[in-house]
Specification:
By secondary structure, the protein is an alpha+beta fold. It has helices at about 5-10, 30-40, 100-115, 130-140; strands at about 10, 20-25, 45-50, 70-75, 85-90, 120-125. The protein is built from four helices and six strands, in the order H-E-E-H-E-E-E-H-E-H. It has a four-stranded mixed β-sheet, sandwiched between helices.
């Protein structure tokens, strides 16, 4: 499989995504990002979402330990949840024992930054599934 074919094997065509195709990390049918994207696409309360682009030309947050790129921006239908906009980080496990130290540091810095400018409408959380995102949303109400 050449590099181009490999990249397209990660592409999902979803109805609620702002992009024509959403490229997720991981190749398996059970990848965390693929499941999360599919769950967002079928969730009644989700209006639109985006897989945030990485790197200098994408969405990133400068931190003291390097640039940090969260995975998703999600907008919920007004009235279905209290918080309309979420930025989410999806990892297979948020257990700090399984994350690289630099990832832990970047996520920690991003949490502090988002906590500084969080409002009633804008929140940041790290999650490992759409179900865990819904639990967080319900706990904030």
């Amino acid at each position: 499989m050449n590099k181009s074919s490999l990249e397209y094997s990660k592409a999902l065509q979803l109805k609620k995504s702002i992009q024509d195709f959403t490229f997720v990390d991981g190749l398996s049918e059970n990848s965390i990002e693929k499941k999360f994207a599919n769950d967002l696409d079928i969730a009644e309360e989700v209006l639109v979402f985006a897989k945030l682009p990485r790197g200098r030309k994408g969405f990133y947050i400068p931190t003291p330990v390097g640039d940090y790129s969260p995975d998703w921006a999600i907008t919920f239908k007004q009235g279905t949840v209290r918080h309309i906009f979420f930025i989410a980080e999806t990892k297979g496990s948020m257990d700090t024992m399984q994350l690289k130290p630099i990832e832990q540091a970047k996520i920690s810095c991003a949490k502090k930054l988002f906590n500084e400018f969080s409002t009633e409408d804008v929140k940041y959380h790290d999650v490992d599934s759409y179900d865990s995102l819904l639990i967080i949303i319900q706990s904030l109400d």
